[in-house]
Amino acid sequence: MTVEAFVAALKKAGILLTETQVKQFHQYYELLVETNEHVNLTAITEQHEVYLKHFFDSLTVAQYVTSLQTTNQTLIDVGTGAGFPALPLKIAFPQLRVTLVDALQKRVRFLKTVVEALGLDHVTIVHGRAEDIGQEQRFREQFDYATARAVARTSVLAEYTLPFVKIGGQLLVMKGANAQQELGDGEKALHTLGGRFKEAFDFQLPNGDKRFIQIIDKVQKTPKKYPRQAGTPNKKPIQ
């Protein structure tokens, strides 16, 4: 996907980028590739692939959850890695207030560099594991939205993310081909943690890759014992 195709595809979806925003995406790409030479951020480095599989893919969630485009709601991105999907969302929709969580200090340093270089405001970057941060009062059940991309299967992801979502907020699950199977396997975990499945959207990226966005409403408080200590959700998913 060329830069021009990226801008055109977003325009077709009703998302218009300014010249400044297009430049910010280019700067983000350059920083990603430059840093990736000595810090493992992504296996995808070709420009057309980054624009399609990282930038465009990250923004698909806003095509289905349109309030992301216009409100200044809060979003937490758990296990954000190189900043996906939160930083593309922040660039495209500057009014969003985003928090990025990652357990690796090297990634956190990269994220801070990007945020500073692009002049983004209302971005909080937190170094730590979701299981620990999810028990901190300043983060627990404070967010309108939580999301995560390529982090864990849904039964595990639920425990990483739902403790951050306020009642009335939503978990936005971004998945590939196994989405429906994972949702079925994760049903008990979602219910236990205060979530309830609302709806799902399936679509294809311009290259034909299948994608799903599943929306989980937060309808009850997450029991205090969740998230469990670091490592436990992955080893012993709620079943």
From TrEMBL:
Signal peptide: none annotated. GO terms for molecular function: rRNA (guanine-N7-)-methyltransferase activity. It is found in: Cytoplasm. One of its GO terms (cellular component) is cytosol. Its main location: cytoplasm. Specifically methylates the N7 position of a guanine in 16S rRNA. PANTHER family: S-ADENOSYL-L-METHIONINE-DEPENDENT METHYLTRANSFERASES SUPERFAMILY PROTEIN (PTHR31760:SF0). NCBIfam families: rsmG_gidB. This is Ribosomal RNA small subunit methyltransferase G.
